Each structure stands twice: as C-alpha cells, then as structure tokens.
Amino acid sequence: MTTPAVNTSAAPASTVTAGEPDALDARVRSLREAGVDLLVGTALDFAGVIRSKAVPVRRLPGFASSGMGASPSWVVFCADNGIAFTSGIGVSGDLRLRLDAAAVRPIGDGMAWGPTGYHEQSGERSPLCARGRLADLEERVAAAGLTALMGAELEFTLVAADGSRLEQSSWAAYGMRSLVARRDFLTDLTRTLEEAQVGAEQIHAEYGTDQFEVSLAPLPPVEMADTAILTRILIGLVAARHGLAPSFSPLSFVGGSGNGMHLHLSLARDGQNLFGAGDGPHGITAEGGSAIGGVLDGLSELLAVYAGSVVSSLRLTPGSWSGAAACWGLENREAALRFLAGTPGNPHGANIELKIVDPSANLYLAAAAFLGSALDGIERGLPLPEEVVGNPAETPEFTRLRLDAEPSAALDRLASSALAQELFGAGIVEGAVAVRRHELDAFAGAAPEEITAALRLAWT
User: Fold this and answer.
1) Are residues 318 and 400 in the same domain?
2) CA–CA separation, 168 vs 189, rounded Å?
3) In a designed cystine with 351, which of 5, 73, 151, 361 is the match (CB 3.0 to 4.6 A)?
4) E strands, 12-81, where?
5) For the domain that residue 91 is a member of, what is the CATH number?
C-alpha cells in the first residue's frame, strides 16, 4: 500500500485562474484541440455522492468566474436521492458552483473535468463548502509553520452494470490469476489514469472477490482530495467502457470484504518529518506524538464524518482490517491509526494512515477532520497514547478500545462535538447529521442485504 510522506514532482494540470480571461480563453482552445466537447464540474454532497454540472467547453470562463447555479439543497442530497432539509437549508436561495480552472484536465471520451466550490451569489465562498473548509485547514497548518501531505487508497468492487455480482469461477486474494482475469479493464484503467496525470502508484487485486485498489501519490490536502475524486470518476468511466461498474459502497455484498478509502498524513516542520525525526517510539517527535493523540482523541466524535453512512457500520467490525479499534500501532492493520515508519522499505517516509475512512464519506470533510484533529492535538500538546502491539481484539483493553460504530450514537456525538463545530461550522455539521439521519430513517428495519443492495452503486 502507498505510504505518502513527501511531495512528488507531479505538476498541476494547468496554471490558469479565474482572474485571467486571456489564459482561460487559451485553455478553452487547448481543450478543444485535445478533442474536448463537454466540461464537467463536480462537487461532493454531505452523503459523499459526486454531483455534477456540465457545460460546453466554450463556457469554461463563465463556469470559473460567475459559476453555475445550484440550490443550497445540493449539499444535503442523500445517497437514496432524498433531500434532508435543515433549519438553514430549504427550497429558497441559490448557490454558485465555481470551477477551479487550474485543476481542469481532459479525461477522455470527449470530456474534461474540474472540481468546483460552493459560492454565494455575491462571490464569497459559502460556509457550506466542504472543499473550502479543507482549504482553510491547509492554510491553518501552513500558518503554524507546518507542511502537510496526504495520500489516498481507493478500494472498490467490480460489479455488473446493473449492480449484480459478476460471474466468477475463482478468486485469488492479491493474486495474479485475479489480475489476469480483469487485465483488459486494468490496462485500460492504467492508461487512462496516466493520460489524466493522476499519479497512481499501485493498482492491484485486493482480498475480496472482484475487489481492487488504486493507491495515489502524496499531495497537498485539497489537491489530494480533488485527485482522489477524479480517480473515482475515471474508474467509473473505464468500467463503463467494459460493461462493468465499480461499487464504492463501504460493503458491496453482505459477507464480502468492505471497501475503504484510507487516508495517509505526513507533517513536517522546517523539513523535518514529525513522525520520523524524533527520539520517541519509531522516531516520532513530541509534536508528531501530539498529532497522533489529537487524531485518536477526536476519533469518536468525528466517526460519522469518516464512516457515517448507513452501510459504514457493517464494515467497521473487528477482524476485517477496517481499523475498528481506537488506537495506534506500528503497521497494525486492526488499529484505526496505522503507523508507518520511515525505513528503506518506505521511500515516502514516516506517516500515519487512518483506516476507518470509507468511500461514503465526503472526502473533503474527512480529510479536514483528519488534518484538523492532528493540528488540534499539536496545539494542545497532547501526549502520545500508548501503542497497541498486535491484534487489539486480543488485548484486555479491547472493550475500551473498540469504536462505537452504532450509527445513531455516532451522529449524536458529531452533533454535539465542539471540535466538529470548530472545523466545519454549524451549517455543515447540521447538514451532515441531517443527511445521515435521513439514511437511518429511510432504511429503518431493513436487513443488511436490502441496504447493501439498494446503495451498492450510490457512490459510483
């Protein structure tokens, strides 16, 4: 698995900004020369679903400056396409989806893609913009004299276009046989990711039947999240070309393997890695220990951000390598926070991996929660918690360490969390809780098999 800790040499897709009309016009011309007809801008709602607006490529300048209209209810769309209105989000009002022109790139099939942020009609960024919240945290970290890099590992299960299981005679976990069986899809995916300059570092068959993982190179937080979202889109486009679909559900089939969206984080001060330049356990510095302490201290109240869907709790079980124990440990895959030391076998350097995040999360909010809680730990000078060696479920402390993943309780903790209010603001917290409560109500009394079947393609 990829272990990001230092930046890569990957260049941004372009350097144009919304304030440079000539550069924007030149970008339109270059996209047309690349065969692009349709420009797609995407945004995540609080259910973690990728929503989009598309325009003819000639409208790129307007998309980047004034933006495209979207009801405030967009942020509280739900995985089942319901709408979870809140005290501040109803049928009135309008937001603008403004394209980040610097991130626009061709993605094949006559299309280009770029991320958007939610803005008010006045042009100011909306307090409901999750991407903007992550950008704020990135700036706070920089103001504290720190450099943050993040990476993502995206797990998904290949299914038929209608969401049903694929016919499969046998499956070898991480096996060559499994890769060969899907070689046409995987070679097409590799080519597509390379052409889009995504920076994939690994593509391999996973443990579960027809499950695969794409690991991405380390990037600054907002760019990491943008790239991971683009990667999910490209996986879907390639799968469609082969008559398939990727299920990004936390659990595609009851009894099968869960899909994670693991996040890695490294922090450095003056070029020194906080997780590898100290004299603490495994080279952890005092500030690095405080960052780990902050992440674990905020884990319970932020769980509904990391893994808050009605499917998520079905994945967060001991023995599934999903990190269902609130602890950390060196290369411990049963711990919520896996520590990766800086060794010759880890060329990216020491970092921490949050294993509980799954693909139903709003990635911008999940990354902000991870980064923000680490910064909170540093600012409060929290001590490094005791390391757990081996399987947490086999320790006397497991009753205390096991994460309470019961969805309603997790939402209660998020709703009352002072840390969440600080990181996201009241509007996002209220909206995120409302969306997940809608899911609980919509599937109340349903069997796990019904839930997973209904939402198998919700995050595709």
Assistant:
1) yes
2) 21
3) 5
4) 38-44, 50-56, 68-70
5) 3.10.20.70
DSSP code for 41: E
- Domain shared by 95 and 179, yes or no: no
| Residues in contact with 140: Cβ distance below 8 Å, sequence separation at least 6, in sequence order | 372, 375
Instruction: Name residue, tokens 């919520």.
Output: 336
- What six digits make up the tokens of 363? 């990635």
Q: What are the structure tokens assigned to 13, written together?
A: 């897709």
Cα dihedral 238→367→19→57 (10° resolution): 20
What is the tens place of the pLDDT at every residue in 300-353? 999 999 999 999 999 999 999 999 999 999 999 999 999 999 999 998 899 999
115 and 152 belong to one structural domain = no
CA distance 102 to 70: 21
pLDDT at residue 51 above 50? yes
pLDDT at 3 over 50: no
327: closest CA among 422, 391, 253, 413?
Answer: 391
Structure tokens at 11: 């260049």
> With contact defined as beta carbons under 8 Å apart, do 149 and 219 qualify?
yes
Question: Residue 454 corresponds to which tokens in the numbers above?
Answer: 């209904």
Structure tokens of 192? 């597509």
The answer to whether residues 223 and 273 touch, using CB atoms and an 8 Å cutoff, is: no
Please state at what angle helix 286-297 crosses helix 363-380, rounded to 10 degrees. Answer: 130
Pairwise CA distance, residues 352 & 338, whole Å? 6
Q: Is residue 391 part of a domain?
A: yes
CA dihedral 80, 211, 246, 428 (to 10 degrees): 40
Domain count, the chain: 2
404 close to 318: Cβ distance less than 8 angstroms: no
> Whole domain around residue 282: which residue ranges?
135-454
Helices (H), 50-94: 60-65
Task: Report the candidate in 263, 109, 99 with the shortest Cα–Cα distance to residue 195.
Answer: 109
